[in-house]
Inverse folding.
């Protein structure tokens, strides 16, 4: 499938339609639609956009969509991706705006919220499993994984802080390598 | 003018909410308290309902606030404003990454970002697990996990099954 404005828009519109249960769900959805089905990006790139998407300001699902859209077809692709992903959200809220207060307190809606919460959780677990296979390749990457996990889960460090720390470590490691091996830009 | 106010307020959220997830919430609560666009109660309802409507909560609230204060044009302006800072910043970073792709420092940073991203997502999962799970939820989760082992399925499969399961469980008063 060609990466035209229309195709990118259409794909992200579909992503936007199933983007239930909060912004993080965009990751498993993109994994399914763009990595597995269309093969437009790979898991490595998705992981990179996810980390970067958390370290810049703004809504995470929007950031990841813009990164991915740009990768697919430059600024045009980015516009297609972001407008596609927010369009279903926009239409739904405009339609529901006047009645949602009545809907939200219905008992059966509460039950659906509960169920979807579990659905979101399994999607996150499956996404971690998938990314794990691709990104944890040696002892060092396992250590980085564990450090990021522990900082965020146990010490409640904001994700942006963890990512910025990782960026500095990356720079520092390369600096060390250059000192050791005289490993110059080539 | 209401349009300009909406634009500035939501542009401000897009620019300063930092760190993903629910980082927009403090800003949205602040608006509920200082402006008359929506109440705190409406915001809580919105957060609940946005788990079953498409889109992240930040975008949903922007659309909603714009719509109830200034109709369709208002909702367009607020939604546009909340993603505009992301758009500008991400495009700039993408252009820089593209230009310096071959640079060893950039490669080293990208190598670091992969396991970091994976670790952060695992932390989100653990957090959700601790906050949401009960016995029945654990049962559903285990069943869905077993289903995932036999075949690759679409995200919609998992969300659909869990919504229906929740609906049925709620009917028998089992969810709380």
């Amino acid at each position: 499938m060609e990466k035209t404005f229309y195709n990118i828009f259409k794909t992200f519109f579909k992503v936007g339609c199933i983007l239930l249960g909060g912004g993080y769900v965009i990751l498993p959805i993109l994994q399914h639609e763009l990595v597995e089905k269309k093969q437009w990006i790979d898991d490595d790139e998705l992981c990179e956009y996810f980390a970067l998407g958390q370290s810049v300001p703004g809504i995470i699902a929007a950031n990841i969509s813009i990164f991915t859209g740009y990768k697919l077809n430059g600024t045009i692709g980015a516009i297609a991706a972001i407008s596609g992903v927010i369009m279903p959200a926009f239409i739904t809220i405009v339609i529901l705006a006047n009645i949602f207060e009545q809907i939200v307190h219905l008992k059966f809606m509460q039950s659906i919220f509960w169920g979807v919460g579990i659905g979101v959780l399994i999607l996150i677990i499956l996404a971690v499993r998938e990314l794990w296979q691709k990104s944890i390749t040696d002892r060092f990457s396992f250590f980085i994984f564990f450090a990021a996990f522990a900082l965020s889960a146990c010490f409640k460090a904001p994700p942006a802080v963890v990512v910025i720390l990782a960026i500095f470590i990356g720079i520092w490691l390369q600096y060390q390598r250059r000192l050791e091996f005289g490993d110059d830009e080539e | 003018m209401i349009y300009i106010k909406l634009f500035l307020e939501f542009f401000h959220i897009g620019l300063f909410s930092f760190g993903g997830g629910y980082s927009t919430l403090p800003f949205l609560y602040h608006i509920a308290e200082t402006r008359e666009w929506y109440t705190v109660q409406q915001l809580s309802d919105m957060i609940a309902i946005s788990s079953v409507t498409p889109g992240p909560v930040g975008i949903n609230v922007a659309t909603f606030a714009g719509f109830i204060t200034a109709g369709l044009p208002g909702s367009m302006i607020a939604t546009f404003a909340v993603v505009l800072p992301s758009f500008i910043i991400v495009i700039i970073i993408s252009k820089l990454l593209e230009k310096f792709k071959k640079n060893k420092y950039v490669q080293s940073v990208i190598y670091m970002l992969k396991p970091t991203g994976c670790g952060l997502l695992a932390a989100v999962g653990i957090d959700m697990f601790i906050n949401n799970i009960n016995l029945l939820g654990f049962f559903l989760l285990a069943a869905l996990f077993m289903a995932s082992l036999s075949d690759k399925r679409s995200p919609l499969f998992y969300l659909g099954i869990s919504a229906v399961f929740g609906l049925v469980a709620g009917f028998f008063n089992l969810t709380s």
